[in-house]
Design goal:
Blueprint (H helix, E strand, L loop, with lengths): L14 H11 L14 H15 L9 E4 L1 H13 L5 E6 L4 H7 L4 E8 L9 E2 L4 E2 L1 H7 L4 E7 L11 H14 L2 E5 L18 H4 L2 E6 H4 L8 E4 L2 H15 L4 H14 L4 H23 L3 E3 L5 E5 L13 H4 L3 H13 L21 E5 L4 H11 L9
Parallel strand pairs: 2-3, 2-6, 4-10, 6-7, 7-8
Antiparallel strand pairs: 1-9, 3-5, 8-9, 10-11, 11-12
Helix pairs in contact: 1-10, 2-10, 3-4, 3-9, 11-14
Length: about 400
């Protein structure tokens, strides 16, 4: 239940995508280098799929580029636009890969915290209750600020940023000419209204690079097929950086991803995926309701944050030194693994040292598993009862 591995036969890519990959392997052109900006068929399929979502006609030749996973795509964006000592604003908790990607070209990370719900330790809350402190954001902006990273739906919180939040952030970016890197790799799994920065206004759109992941979309994270969509003048430089990093991405899997985008709507794949993942969220969270443990209901994605402040760890428990020296969530995580056989991620790993206190009672669980695995984890988590305080 720790990492977001799509575990089980139910999370192999859909058959229509697998068949497309197998067919591509038999084609000579699909076993050679693809154009560095991506295979034309995939760029056209993405442009067609996202034009109605972004409210504009996307040019597949100049406004889409294919990357070796979304992570490499974000690295390409940072390499393209971040100069030494430029600053990039990141909301914490953060996806840890952002930091090294920003620092590689010499950038400096500036952190702005999402404020956790004040009643998160006592009541079930919504991921939407983790809020942006706009005053903190304004304070973080200075003449060196080059870019801001928005992750929606958010990992690890599961927050879908609201339209007013995105508008306020976007307006600040327009005022200060700050680029927006919108990490939307979980964009096909929202459980509430999903707004995209690139749709808010022409002024915000011209500053926005939207990041997506065919691997996340089609349960094929090992394929490493990502993409960026944005204005031609921005995509040009992202593509140039991508060329220097890895030249091109895997040809037959690009072709299979293209078929995926071409057929997904017709087969109702997106809605089916969203509905199935939401049912897994509900199925798994039922054990926290049963135990009386608060949790944050995700508004998108497949991660659940549970608050375990009511769990009392034995004072004499023999934690190894590399765990005992870490925040409480590391101890909780170790305890659950050793005593209950359930793995969870300690979310203080997604925080800077000075703000780890915000998350030390929380654990992140990934529900992208077969129902049998979820039910087994729930049964094991019931063992927490004897360690809970009133």
């Amino acid at each position: 239940m720790g990492q977001g591995f799509l575990l089980g036969s139910g999370y192999n890519p859909p058959q229509f995508v697998l068949d497309a990959a197998k067919e591509a392997l038999d084609r000579v052109d699909c076993n050679q280098y693809s154009p560095t900006k991506g295979r034309p068929r995939l760029k056209k399929a993405i442009a067609k799929a996202y034009s109605p979502l972004l409210g504009k006609d996307i040019d597949p030749d100049t406004e889409v580029t294919i990357t070796t996973g979304a992570n490499e795509g974000m690295l390409s964006a940072f390499m393209a636009f971040v100069e030494p000592e430029d600053e990039v604003i990141v909301f914490e908790p953060f996806f840890d890969q952002y930091l090294s990607n920003i620092e590689m070209p010499g950038g400096v990370v500036r952190y702005v915290p999402l404020q956790p719900p004040k009643n998160g330790a006592t009541e079930v809350t919504s991921a939407g209750d983790w809020t942006v402190d706009m005053d903190e954001l304004r304070k973080a902006i200075n003449p060196k600020t080059r870019m801001i990273v928005i992750n929606t739906p958010h990992n690890p919180v599961g927050k879908v940023f609201s339209k007013p939040e995105l508008q306020a952030i976007g307006d600040l970016c327009v005022e200060h000419n700050i680029l927006i890197l919108s990490d939307e790799v979980y964009d096909r799994l929202p459980y509430t209204t999903f707004n995209r920065p690139a749709t808010l206004s022409p002024e915000i759109s011209r500053l926005t690079l939207t990041v997506g992941s065919a691997g996340k979309n089609f349960y094929a994270t090992g394929w490493r097929i990502g993409y960026l969509i944005g204005p031609a003048n921005l995509i040009h430089y992202v593509s140039a950086a991508h060329t220097r990093i890895c030249f091109s991405s895997v040809s037959p899997l690009q072709e299979a991803a293209a078929v995926g985008f071409e057929m997904a709507d017709e087969l109702n794949f997106w809605e089916q995926s969203r509905r199935e993942m939401k049912s897994k969220v509900d199925r798994f969270c039922a054990v926290f309701d049963e135990l009386g443990l608060p949790y944050s209901i995700p508004s998108g994605g497949y991660f659940v944050l549970a608050n375990l402040s009511r769990v009392s760890l034995p004072s004499s428990y023999p934690f190894p030194s590399h765990v005992s020296s870490r925040p409480r969530d590391f101890k909780l995580s170790w305890f659950l693994i050793m005593e209950l056989g359930v793995a969870a991620i300690p979310p203080t790993e997604f925080y800077t040292e000075e703000r780890k206190w915000m998350a030390e009672d929380w654990l992140r669980f990934a529900v992208c598993k077969e129902d049998e695995v979820l039910e087994g984890a729930k049964e094991r988590l019931r063992g927490l009862k004897k360690y809970m305080k009133d």
